[in-house]
Every structure is written in structure tokens, then in C-alpha cells.
Amino acid sequence: MSKSLSYSSITKKIVLSLAGLFLISFLVVHLLINMLILFDDNRELFNAAAHFMATNPLIQVFQYVLFFGFILHIVLGLIIQIQNWLARPVRYNRKGYSELSYFSKFMIHTGAIIFIFLIIHFANFFVIAKFGHIDPITYDSGNTYEDLGLLIIKLFEDGIYVIFYVISILLLGFHLDHGFQSAFQSLGINHSRYTPFIKTFGTLFSAVITLGFISIPLVIYFF
Amino acid sequence: MDLTLKIWRQPSTDEKGKFVDYQVQDISADASFLEMLDVLNEQLVVNDEDPVAFDHDCREGICGACSLYINGRPHGPDKGITTCQMHMRRFKDGETIVIEPWRAKPFPVIKDLMVDRTAFDEIIRAGGYISVGTGGMPDANAIPIPKRDADIAMDAASCIGCGACVAACKNASAMLFVAAKVSQFAMLPQGKVEARERVQNMVSKMDELGFGNCSNTYACEAECPKEISVSHIARMNREFFSSKLISEKEK
Ligand code: FES
Fold first, then answer.
1. Quick one: DSSP state of residue B95?
2. Are B73 and A89 an interchain contact pair (Cβ–Cβ within 8 Å)?
3. What is the pTM of this model?
4. Using CB atoms, which residue from B73, B200, B213 is nearest to A13?
5. Complex ipTM > 0.85
6. What does DSSP assign to residue B60?
7. Which one of A40, A153, B13, B131 has the minimum C-beta count within 10 Å?
């Protein structure tokens, strides 16, 4: 802890940004695999993809990189936030309203909720898939996979869980909206021509990711 | 115009402060904000009360001494000007104006609305200079500098070090100030010589003094009286990154 406090503010922001961008790339893969569950009724595509992710040795190694990325992003985010709070011990009576990037004010709050979501998400899927038992299913093609898709469908039939999931993902979207463009600025990428593009792209990208993830429980719950 | 002023009063750094309400009458709409405070202070002196302490010097927007957080904004509601350049016509008759000092751990309150900004001087001392031997006047055209670079350096150099960026930032971060000071040299050949140590020393001094980290909210750019661009912050990040990674290690 004390070592990470001694890193300069810019180093921390650069590492935070790189970890964040890495986690974003993971989100894209995750979303693409999740989407498969909507494509066929017997979940064969999705279960095959999940089986691949669970057994491919390269992906297994990558899993640790991913864990590391999460921990780095969370721990650095916390340290930075605590330092930020300490930098202004006496607050203003009138709150400033000049922030231009609205969600930037709530990165720690959206981050905290995403973290809680992550733990529950982990307990629901990852732990069961890894250490619990999932009934296998054999398809006409002759392939047998663990039926992870069924687990998801069952969870998404619970209205409360769907609401929690949707809210968490929405907050994730807000987190991404600021985080995406912010990462580029922290990495020193700011250009009169490309920065507006990065901002617009980041917002659209966040919207697509959010809507993508949200659409799955909604489709399962309502159809 | 008649106004109610809600002003932070604090006798000294170590004593507790509080807001005190004051009334001022018949203020001209053409008076500057500081002239309005002068009127208040004269009133206080006549009544044998302690006048409100606030920083000011040039009163024409070039020194960066004035530093008031007015109704939730450093240097008040207008864009691109300092407190001393703001006029009372910006406010409505009968309005209540809340006036606070800059709030940041490295800027302790000296008295009332006056804060100690020595922290900025310390950052400058850490690297905000170039070392050149004295001697005869060099030829102005001896070192050609592209117009574009000279313009960017000049924009960065327009920073008056008032601290509005720190005051505006939700994290009390000094990144815009330090970035402006790094950038003005980074763009010029004279500054390149010490570029590597400069950025590292200034950034580590800034961290050591307890300023917050940059969240890229850009409140600093929005409130800067000289409208310094956050693109300088990105430049400083690049300078810092390359000074750490790309340059060879000494010794
Ligand atoms: S008093 Fe000099 S800038 Fe305002």
C-alpha cells in the first residue's frame, strides 16, 4: 500500500487507464459470447463457447491476467479517490458546477456498485461453473457441454435479479462513458481533431455495450 | 444595487472559521467585484469592525492575486476573467452572494478569503525554469522556432498562477497549473535541455504537497481565467511518460 502511494499521480493514472482499457476489451468478448444465448433455443452455441472459454489453456492463463487487471483497476481507483478526498479537507458551502464530464463525479460510486455486482456475478456464475456442478446436455450434433446457458436463463427469470442486473449494467455504462475518453487523456492522447471523435465514440461504445448486456435478461424475462 | 454577502470569516489559519452575513447598499452596477468589497470594508472600518481580508494586486487580470470562490465558481460566473475583472452588473439587485476562499489542503487559509499559495512557488522552484548562462544578448533569430510551437508555448505561458484550477477541481488537483508550466518549456528548444528532470521534479513536488489526482473532468479548463487548455495536461502526461520510459536512466 505505501509503495503504491509513492508512485506519482500520473503513473497511477496511466496504469489505471491501461487496466481500464484492458477490462473494456474483455467486456466486448464477454458481450459477444453472451449474445450467443439469444441465437438458438437449445443454447448450443452459447454452451459451446462457454465450454471453449472454460477449457482452452490460453484462456485459462489469460484468466489470471484478467483478475490482475481487475484488482489493479480497483485498488488504484480507490487509492486515487482517497488521495482526492484528502486533498480538500474543508468542503465548499456552494458546490461547484463547472464539471463538464458529468459522470466523472461519480466514478467511485458507480465503481463501488459495479464491484458489488461483480462479487454477486462471480458467486452466481464463475464459482458454480468452476467448482460447482452443472448438468451436462447432449446435442443432436453429438457434442456434450455443461448447460451453463440454462443456469443463466433460470436466474434471469427472477424479476428482482433482472432489475439488479439492469441497474448495475446501466451504471457500468456511465462509468465507461467517462472512463473511455478519460483513459486517452491520461495516456497523453489529446488532439484537436481526434479527441472529439474519441469522446463521441466512447459514448456510443458505452451505449452499445450497455444495451447489449441489458437486452439479454430483458429478452429472457419477457419472451 | 443592494446585496447580501455571505462571507467566510476566519481570524487565522489555526482558528475555526464561519460564514457571516453582511449587507451592502447602493452599489453601482459598474463597480468591480473588488470595489464592492472595498465598500464593505470601509463600512466595517467605520463601525470599528475587522475588515474582510482578500488578496488583490493589479486589479486588471494579469497578476493572479485575486482569488475568490463566488457562488460556487472560482472567479465568479463569467468565463475567462479574474475576480477583479468582474463587474457587479453580473448580479441581480437583492441577490445573496456566497464568497469563499480557495479550498485545498496545500492552500491553507491565512485569514478570511486569503489563502497561502506558496505551494505553487514550490512547484515552480522544483523545475519551472530554464538554466541559461548570463552574457550578451543572443540574436533573436538564432534559434528558429515554428510559429505553431511558439503559439502553443505562449498560450501555456499565459497562466497567471492564480489557483482557480485547483479551486475548481473536485479533487483539488493542480494538474492544469503544472501542465501549463511544463508545456511552456516543452514546446521550446531552450526548454528541451532540462525537460526530463523538469517534468519529473514538478510532478513529484505537486504530489508531495498533497494536491489531488486528475480525474479529467475539465472543470479547471472551464474556470481558468486565461482559458488554458487541458491539452497541456495530456502533453505533460506524454512528457512524463516518455521521461520515465523512453529516456535512458542516469548513472
Ligand atoms: S488582482 Fe491581479 S489578477 Fe486580479
1. -
2. no
3. 0.92
4. B213
5. yes
6. S
7. B131
